[in-house]
Amino acid sequence: MNTAPVARVLIVDDEYYFRQLLIHLIDWTSAGFEVVAEAEEGSAALKIMEEQAIDLIITDIEMPNMNGLDFVKAVRALDSAAKLIFITSYDNFTYAQKAISLGADHYLLKPIDEEAVEQALITIRTQLTEKWEAERYINRLKKEAGYVQEPEAGQSTEEGRRQGSGKRLVRKAVDHVTAHYADDSLSLQSTASVLFVNPSYLSHMFKKETSESFVEYVTNVRLGKAMELLRQGAAADESLAPKVATIAHQVGYRDPFYFSKCFKKKYGITPNKVYEGSNVERE
């Protein structure tokens, strides 16, 4: 008996009337799909994917703020397994190549061809059903072997994957900060660019997972490393101890005076005072 769930669809296109045309043109129920959300650009679509599991994304390429290709890069960076259909007005070979490299299942052109969409849905529905059946079989074997626990009531495998994707993104951001805290150009924007996600989305997820803003986290990492270097200097031969300005640059601060101000605000003592001994006391 086929117990595969209804596949959940997200439509992303900056043209409202096209979204409505697509929603009402296709018999989604008969195809085994349900349009659960729509968005007019990539940033909004990423937030939707954070809130609910999506099995199929149908997206335009040319959109404001965050185009379809960048949006899908961000989706893939989150390890989403969602299937993908690009529908665009541009018969552009370069676009098609990029779409394929991002794992596009279909690349269709506007004006919309109802039959082409329906054929694409048939193919994708078959692939999704096969994937879900394989997952259930593997999970059953693991359960019988005692390797996995029952999922929480109402939680699907895809929902569990989606919830973990935010944590994985934040871990990648933390790893990037750990590797590049000494770079004075490190920022939320530069990190988001490296991870192929929207800065506002990364900021939101980082705060949600760590209870700190991205800027607060970077500052704490830099000042913590500075304290470590200053204590090492206090314990070293005075002639070999690095100057405060040198340590400021080593932890990503161009301006030693600003570094000293931030350091005292956090620790209640100036960096120079740390050199008086390895045991830090508040003023």
UniProtKB/TrEMBL annotation:
InterPro entries: CheY-like_superfamily, Homeodomain-like_sf, HptR, HTH_AraC, Sig_transdc_resp-reg_receiver, Tscrpt_reg_AraC-type_HTH. It is found in: Cytoplasm. Residues 8-125 form the Response regulatory domain. The modification 4-aspartylphosphate is found at residue 60. Residues 171-277 form the HTH araC/xylS-type domain. SMART domains: HTH_ARAC (SM00342), REC (SM00448). This is DNA-binding response regulator.
